[in-house]
């Protein structure tokens, strides 16, 4: 049913798309959908362009439930005097490799952590010239796969995007939202949710994103169904999801956290009566070039989404 495609994931990871600069990953996804939809169970209507910024919505049949997968990533912006300013919350590791391009061509540079006499730290880049001010730099792709786990930058949230594209192949009814800005404060799910609610009466959302390995959420423990983070989903909807996972005998673990957020949290802060639940594989080395996810958890995530989108639409 669910088919993990590491080669597609590697392609997705190679495409830069820091928050606010999602145009390239948007274009890749649109091209992928248009090239592969003839192989899918049903063909969606695509919405993008004017009024959608860099976001995309796919609508299949008569939807009741939408998958939300954010396309953007963390990264850095070049500032003054070779400084680097964080986009979202990336880890800063001395010597880490960053890539991008500016008006003078492609860039591969290294991050340097500078500490002054007062112990204050700042981030700089090491390069043989000044990079154009305002250039976005992202982690250099480094895709590593074995028979147990996958390690790479930007599994958050290229894996969530991959999961949504996998679910698309099986949908007859439902919607998929590829959102923007999630890593740097949200900002798009409000108008995207409004579009789906007003036009199709969609009022349920599954948040296809990657969570964290913690004391209670382990590698190999199955896909994490989040009972809460900084947002609190409605218990009746959550219980329905858990019941479906139990009935279909899908391997999962329950997450209960006091902090963190996602497109689900942003959706809850709108005035839309959306039920939502975050469901994703857990990763270690979060927001670094070495994010790590177990293959079995990816497979459980993909299988659960296919089952849920059939049951909830």
Structure in words:
The protein is α/β, with parallel strands linked by helices and 313 residues long. The protein folds into 2 domains: 6-73 and 143-311, Aminopeptidase (3-Layer(aba) Sandwich); 76-139, Peptidase M42, domain 2 (Elongation Factor Tu (Ef-tu), domain 3), CATH 2.40.30.40. The chain has 7 helices and 19 strands. Helix 1 (6-14) crosses helix 3 (155-168). The longest helix has 17 residues, at 295-311. The model has no long low-confidence stretch (mean pLDDT 96).
From the coordinates shown, what is the CATH architecture of the largest domain?
3-Layer(aba) Sandwich
For the sheet with most strands, the description reads:
8 strands, mixed
What is the CA-atom radius of gyration, in angstroms?
A: 19 Å
Which series of helices and strands comes N to C?
A: HHEEEEEEEEEEEHEHEEEHEHEEEH
Average pLDDT: 96
CATH topology of the largest domain: Aminopeptidase
End-to-end separation in angstroms reads: 18 Å
Uncertain runs are none
The level 1 CATH classification of the largest domain is: Alpha Beta
Structure annotation, total helices: 7
How many individual domains?
2
Q: Helix/strand-derived class?
A: alpha/beta
DSSP strand (E) fraction? 25-35%
């Amino acid at each position: 049913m669910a088919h993990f495609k590491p080669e597609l994931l590697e392609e997705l990871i190679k495409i830069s798309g820091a928050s606010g600069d999602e145009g390239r990953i948007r274009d890749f996804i649109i091209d992928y959908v248009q090239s592969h939809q003839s192989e899918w169970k049903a063909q969606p209507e695509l919405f993008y362009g004017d009024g959608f910024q860099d976001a995309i919505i796919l609508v299949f049949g008569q939807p009741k439930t939408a998958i939300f997968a954010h396309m953007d990533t963390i990264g850095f912006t070049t500032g003054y005097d070779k400084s680097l300013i964080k986009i979202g919350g990336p880890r800063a590791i001395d010597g880490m490799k960053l890539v991008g391009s500016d008006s003078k061509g492609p860039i591969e540079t290294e991050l340097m952590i500078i500490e002054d006499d007062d112990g204050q730290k700042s981030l700089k880049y090491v390069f043989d010239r000044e990079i154009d001010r305002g250039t976005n730099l992202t982690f250099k792709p480094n895709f590593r796969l074995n028979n147990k786990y996958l390690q790479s930058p930007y599994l958050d949230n290229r894996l969530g995007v991959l999961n949504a594209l996998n679910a698309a192949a099986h949908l007859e009814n439902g919607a998929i939202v590829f959102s923007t800005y999630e890593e740097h404060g949200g900002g798009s799910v409000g108008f995207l949710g409004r579009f789906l609610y007003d036009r199709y009466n969609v009022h349920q959302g599954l948040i296809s994103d990657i969570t964290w390995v913690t004391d209670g959420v382990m590698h190999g423990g199955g896909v994490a169904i989040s009972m809460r983070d900084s947002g609190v989903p409605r218990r009746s909807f959550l219980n329905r999801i858990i019941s479906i996972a139990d009935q279909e005998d899908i391997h999962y673990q329950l997450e209960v956290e006091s902090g963190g957020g996602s497109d689900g949290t942003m959706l809850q802060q709108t005035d839309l009566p959306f039920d939502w639940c975050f469901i994703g594989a857990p990763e270690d080395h979060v927001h670094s070039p070495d994010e790590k996810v177990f293959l079995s958890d990816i497979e459980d995530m993909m299988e659960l989404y296919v089952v849920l989108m059939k049951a909830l639409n």
